[in-house]
Amino acid sequence: MTFLVDLAVVTVSCLALGLASKYLRQAAIPAYVIAGIILGKGGFGLITSYDFVEWLGKIGVILLMFYIGHEFNLKGIREPGRLFAGCTDFGVNFIAGLSLGLVIGLSLLEAFILASAVYISSSAIVISSLIENKKLIYPETETVVWLMVFEDIILAILLVVLTSIMAGSLAMIPVSLATTLLLIVFILFLIRMLSNFISPLFERDDEIPILLIFALIFGFSALAHLMSVSEVIVAFFLGSALSGVKSFKMLLGATISFKNLFLTIFFFSFGMLFQFQFATLFSAYFVLALLALITLSIFGKFVSGAIIGKRLHRSLETGLRVGAYMTPRGEFSIVLLAVVGPGIPELLFSLVVAYVIILSIIGSGFAKYSDRIAKAIIGGINK
Amino acid sequence: MRISELPGIGTRYEIESPKGDKVAVIFLETGEIELYVLEAGAEKPSVTRLTPEEARRVGSVLTGALLTIEHEDVEVSFSDISDLRINIHVCPVTKGMVGKSIEDLAIRKRTGVTIIALSRRGRSIISPPPDTVFEEGDLIVVIGEREQIKACAREILGQA
To answer: Consecutive sets of 10 residues in chain B, 160 residues long: mean pLDDT of each?
Structure first.
């Protein structure tokens, strides 16, 4: 029955640190990762079965991607202004990350992974800070939330590309890419075909609807696994396929609860496997790289924000606020790292973990004081 | 009014007054409703978060329903169909109606309301047929839009 002990360790520690972070009005994601770091392999080693906790965490990632996929909205994103904003955000920040990666001596693939982690903001932190800081009435809020949607789409594409590349030899890339796309098309097609059959099942008020959801999620994830396709990509497209099924909306609340629980376990499990070495962590190279990374990625979001603000809102100040809101990085950078997985070197791993923890904390502050920061920068420029 | 979809947050309805004051209502995905008021020239908005129940109350005060219509009146609105508001009104039949049928009075034709129920000596008749003759002491339940209910009060019940 040791799994109960593991479960207790995970939930109690996350509850305690999560609650503390909410009282301090901080993002909870780094708190869960830190709980994992303290109690896991690199810390007190309180977990008996790392595999077990890791499996539960994987369910969290699958559910997160399923949820994001459900929100996936191709129609809304096609508006030219939103497309422009999304492409600017991607162009500026991805290139910034990629160049820095190459400068600090990473391989092209590693730099690509770093750039992906640097580019993608944390929807969870950004959206909750927009609500908490009472920004919903301002026009730039709309720009920011659609940027999040755009980033989700790019995330799906990046995951497809990265998992295909990581799949093996160069010759295998087209094969695994083709398999992935085939499976995606198959899922979209199948759900559309079965839509009339599934829809009434979701309307029942017994355990059938939630069973059906998990049967679909686990069924297709297993299929993906057998076909050596990333299960998170499959979950993403399954979510987007199901969003077209009429009565699915009624079940969203239940799915979100499961997602929240398992995703918290994922953040813990991510931290728990992290064995940081003090020697690496305090080497001059590491510290410098980290500082450069943090500075550059804050700067990057402000630059892209400024361009977007100038074009969409005709105001540099608004743009700088967009940049400030977009600063927090979080769940997606971690998910990306976890999905791309064991193939990446220790150093890059530690770099991104430290980066995400720091930027999720700094970022929430930036989002909170966006008005003052934007004014200060404008003041600085005018001088 | 400007309506914008905010994925991950909800739906925003925004109105700007000629003075430049802004009011926004945000239906959050959690089901709660946030009400923003941003005065022209103000730095920060005032915000309150309402439960659907509270929002409906505020809403019916704003539409004037509570001020103009009398006690035995319910307004039903649906979150999915924002422009549909159904009023249900309960009233006793008046002297002039006694002895006449629903058909004789041409209630729907003249006012647009429909009688959905009739309470007679403590028993209810749901969807009374058109040939139902009113008796003294009957209570009728009518359904319709607010204007139609007013018309009914004026034309049929003879209230000012």
So the answer is: 88 92 92 92 90 84 58 68 78 84 86 88 86 87 85 75
Please name the residues between 7 and 36 in chain B that touch chain A, using a CB distance below 8 Å: 7-9, 12, 14, 22, 24, 26, 28, 34, 36
Which residue in chain B has the smallest CA separation from A131? B9
Of B9, B34, B47, the CB nearest to A145: B9
Residues of chain B neighbouring A374 (CB-CB closer than 8 A): none
Residues 6+ apart with CB under 8 A from A61: A232, A263, A266, A335, A338, A339
Could you tell me which of A18, A54, A55 has the C-alpha nearest to residue A35? Answer: A18
Decide yes or no: CATH 1.20.1530.20 for domain A60-257+276-382. Answer: yes
Q: Among residues B142, B76, B128, B126, which one has the least CA distance to residue B153?
A: B142
Those residues with Cβ within 8 angstroms of residue A45's Cβ, 6 or more apart along the chain or in another chain: A39
- E strands of A239-299, at which residues? none
Residue pair A306/A292 in contact (Cβ under 8 Å)? The answer is no
Largest separation between any pair of C-alpha atoms in chain B: 66
SS in 3 state form for chain B?
Answer: CEEEEECCCEEEEEEECCCCCEEEEEEECCCCEEEEEECCCCCCCEEEEECHHHHHHHHHHHCCHHHHCCCCEEEEECCCCCCCEEEEEEEECCHHHCCCEHHHHCHHHHHCCEEEEEEECCEEEECCCCCCECCCCCEEEEEECHHHHHHHHHHCCCCC
Rounded CA-CA distance A256/A261 in Å is 9
Q: What SS3 state is found at A142?
A: helix
Q: What is the DSSP letter of A40?
A: S
**A120 vs A87: CA distance, rounded Å:** 12
Q: Is B45 on the interface with A (CB under 8 A)?
A: yes
Q: Which residues of B touch A136 (CB under 8 A)?
A: 6, 9, 12, 24, 26, 34, 36, 47
CA A312 to chain centroid: 26
Residue spans of the domains in chain A: they are 60-257+276-382
Beta carbons of A176 and A346 less than 8 angstroms apart: no
- Chain centroid offset of residue A260 CA: 13
Q: Which candidate, A59, A65, A94, A89, places its Cα nearest to that of A77?
A: A89
* Tokens linked to A374: 């934007």
DSSP of A47-71: -S-HHHHHHHHHHHHHHHHHHHHHH
* A73/B7 Cβ within 8 A: yes
Q: Which of A71, A127, A136 comes nearest B12 by C-beta?
A: A136
* Strand order from edge to edge, sheet including B2-6: B2-6, B10-16, B22-28, B33-38, B46-50
Instruction: Compute the residue count for chain B.
Output: 160
Per-residue model confidence as pLDDT tens digits over A181-229: 999 999 999 998 988 888 888 888 889 999 999 999 999 999 998 988 8
| Cβ neighbours of A91 (radius 10 Å) | 13
